[in-house]
Amino acid sequence: MQAGGPDSAAISEAPSSGSEESDCEVGPESDADTALTEEWARELLSAAGVVAPQEVRVESRAGVAGALSRVLAVTVRYESDGEREALPLVVKLPPRDPFGRLFVAEAQFDTREILFYTELAPVLNRLAEEALGPGQGLPIPKCVKARLPDEIGGDSELVLEDVTANGFDSADFAEGLTVERARAALYAAARLHALSLALREREGPLDQRFDFLFPCERAAAGYLRLVRRGLPQLEAFLRGRTDCIEEAAAVSALSARAPSLLGTLLRPAEPAPLAHADFWSGNLLFREKEGQSECIALDWQMVSLGRPMDDVALLLLSSLTPEMRRAVGESLIEEYGDRLEAECMTLGAAAAGAEVRRGLKPDWPRAALRALLLCAGSVDVALGEPRAESRLLEAVKDLHAQGILSLKPDNDA
C-alpha cells in the first residue's frame, strides 16, 4: 500500500491498494492541461451558479499518474463582481497508456466511481438528510462534474471539490493513525454502512437498482492477481528472517489454497450493505475541528455489496501500528458497532443494524484474511520502509497466532 506523496492536494484521490496503482508517481502532468481549457472552466463555473465570470484561467498544481487513472489538482481562477475568486478542484481522468485504459474499461473502475457519485451517493444523502438532518450525508467530496466514457476505453472525467482547501489532509502512513483518527474513519464507515442498510430496507438488494456495484466474481479475478503477485513476495520476505519460519510456511500453504478461498472471503452476507472495499488510510483525508477528528473517504472505484467488517479489518491491519492495533483494536470494533447500531436505529433499520452488529466479531477471521491479501498485493511498497515492514510482519505473526492463516473455504469438510 502506498500513502501518497507530500502534496496533499495531489493525493486527494490516493492510489488504491486493491487496484494495482501502488507504483504511481507524483508530479506535474506536462500535457494534462490540454483538456482543461477556459471553456471547460466556464462550464464548471456556470454549473456552480457563477454568473458572467471574467479573467477565467486554469492552473494545474500537481498530479498523480497511475495505472488506473490520472489525478490532477487544479485551481480555476476568475473574477466575479470585481472580486478575485479561486475554485480548487481534483480531476480524475483515464490513464494515457492504452493497456491501462482497456483494463480500466473492462473492470469499469472509472464508470463505477462516476456512477457512485452521480447516482448512488445522492440517494444516500437524501436519506441522511431526511433522517439525520442537514449536512449528515456521506463523508465524501462534493462532485462538481462527471462524464461517462462514450465507448469502451473512451475518455471519462470526474471533477471533485478539493477538500484539502477546507483543511483536510492525508495521514502519514508510516506513522499510522492515531486513535482519534482511526475512530473518525470507522465512524465514516459506519455512516456508509448504516445508510446503505436503511436504503436496502426500503428498496431491497441494492445491486438490483445500482447494477454497477463491483460484482463478487469480478472482484475475485482482481484478488487472484494480487495473490499471485504478492504472496510469493511476502513468503520470500518471511523466509529471509530467522524468526518467521512458521509464518513463511503458513503463507506458502495459503498461497496454494488462496484461489479456492476467494469465494469465502468475498461473498457478501445478508443483510448486505455497501462496502468501500479499499478502506485504508491512503484513501482517507482528515482534519481536526473543534477538538474532534473528521474523516472523508476517497477512491470509490471498488464500491460493492460486502460486509462491514471488510472495511473495519482493512483499516485496523493496514493503517494502525501493531502496538496501537493490539492495544485498542477490539475497543475500536466495539465503538464502530455502537455507532453502526445507533445510526441504523435512527434510520429505521434497527433490526438490520443489530444483526450486522452481532456478526462483527465472528466475521473477523474472514475479514482479516481478506485484508492480508490486499496488503500482500502491495507488499513491494512496504518492503524497504522499516515501519511499513514491521507493520506487515506483525500482522502476519498475529494472524498466524490466531489460526487465521489456516482458514479454509466454507465448503471444506
Automatic annotation (TrEMBL):
Chain spans, region Disordered: 1-33
Pfam families linked: EcKL
InterPro entries the record matches: CHK_kinase-like, EcKL, Kinase-like_dom_sf
Residue span, CHK kinase-like domain: 158-346
Acidic residues: compositionally biased ranges: 20-32
Name of the protein in question: CHK kinase-like domain-containing protein
Record organism: Papilio xuthus (Asian swallowtail butterfly)
